[in-house]
């Protein structure tokens, strides 16, 4: 029975992996592509969208998104539409590259290391980017949601040689069907079992966890609704804000730009959340 269950989860995992390559948002172009990290011969970039009239000396709120793909693959363009939308609302919006198994032969550990590096680099370069270092949100879908959340909560996973005095913790989290339970009964445990206690966001919630919004479809076969409800409960027990939005009958990845109705529904709630934190310019 256990073997059959593991085989089923493996099939779901592979399906999610290949699905990630079809999530690219067509018809959008980043304003700038900037290297934020280099590991050996691998260069990692931020794909940046600026508000109209943005200047170097501004102090805009910012957000960085991390694509989904099971820590195996995916594309920064998954969140291009979100970035363009938020840039039109006054934020500096970015979609990050990070190392994945298919391209870099890496483990989930390196994904989180890169997530932390991205947030730290953005904060370190705040003046050059024209952003407010105290208003940097992170977002992501599926495994990218785990990367964003782990940047805020996971202990360790720091890239050697970086200035740890500069915080890698985002100030707010936007999580789309996030992989936030990596424990023995959660997603991807067999890949992170040596370090899951430090890696799994749901096991590292604290009084310092940023305000969070979560989007999840009730028909998601990878992320159970009960996990999201538990996450919200644990957040509130720590006195932290967690807005949970459930979408009846929707599957994993329902929020992507290709599904215009769901994209717009979740976009509206994302805007409300960011407005409540003072991240969006009021019309």
| CATH architectural designation | 3-Layer(aba) Sandwich
State the strand order across the main sheet: 1-2-4-3-5-6-7-8
Characterize the largest beta sheet: strand count, sense, and whether it forms a barrel: 8 strands, mixed
Q: Cα-atom Rg, whole angstroms?
A: 17 Å
CATH homologous superfamily title = Alpha/Beta hydrolase fold, catalytic domain
Quote the average pLDDT. 92
Helix content: 25-40%
Low-confidence stretches: 1-22
Question: How many domain units?
Answer: 1
> What is the 3D shape?
globular
Question: Which terms would index this structure?
Answer:
single chain, 283 residues, alpha/beta, Rossmann fold, 8-stranded mixed beta sheet, 20% strand, globular
Task: Give a structural overview.
With 283 residues, the chain is of the alpha/beta class. It has a single domain, classed as Rossmann fold, CATH 3.40.50.1820. The protein has 10 helices and 8 strands. An 8-stranded mixed β-sheet has the order 1-2-4-3-5-6-7-8, with helices on both faces. Strand 5, helix 6 and strand 6 (172-176) form a beta-alpha-beta unit. It is globular, with a radius of gyration of 17 Å. The protein starts with a helix and ends in a 7-residue tail after the last helix. Residues 1-22 have low confidence and may be disordered.
